[in-house]
Amino acid sequence: MIRSIVRGCAAGAAGTTALNAVTYADMAVRGRPTSSVPETVVDRIATRLGHPVPLTDARDNRLTGLGALSGIAVGTGTGAAMSLLHRAGVRMPVWLGGALTGALAMALTDAPIARLGVSDPRTWSARDWVSDAVPHVVYGLVTYGIIASVEQRR
Questions:
Q1: Which end of the chain is more exposed for a tag (fewer CB within 10 A), N or C?
Q2: Block mean pLDDT (10 aa), the chain, length 154
Q3: Cα three-residue angle 68-63-46, rounded to 5 degrees
Q4: Between the CA of residue 147 and those of 1, 2, 21, 150, what are the distances in Å?
């Protein structure tokens, strides 16, 4: 089981790298700015937990780092969960497993955004949804593709 978790984390890390690459390519092509949503989510969660990020000159830098780390945690955690499901016998074609893996990661990031009142996905434009969905689909395909291919070799 530990090996499945480690494999899933590694697959999730690869998927997270792919998600970031697609996101940064989109920013470069369209000239759009980076999102402050991860930092805002982390700030609100930390505050609600009673451990607000200190108000120092380095606060924004800390929030940026914590926001990025939270994305890595979601990506590797989702990979681990999908690897455990795969180990348990839930086997899907890569296109379906990838889409579901991407949808799970997207839900795990978008739910806190909505729950904490950072943004309301119901008000997002089609372009906003595409900017969110495409990188998550790529994440899912890479992550699940690796999980499925590693298991086939065993």
A1: C
A2: 94 98 95 92 95 91 95 98 95 96 96 94 92 96 95 62
A3: 105
A4: 14, 14, 20, 5
Distance between CA 45 and CA 51 in Å, rounded?
9
Structure tokens at 109: 């990031």
Give the closest residue to 140 by CA, choosing from 70, 67, 82. 82
C-alpha span between 11 and 80 (Å, rounded): 8
How far apart, in Å, do the first and last CA atoms of the chain sit?
A: 14
Alpha carbon distance 9, 127 (integer Å): 30
Q: Alpha-carbon distance 83 to 39, whole Å?
A: 28
DSSP designation for 91: -
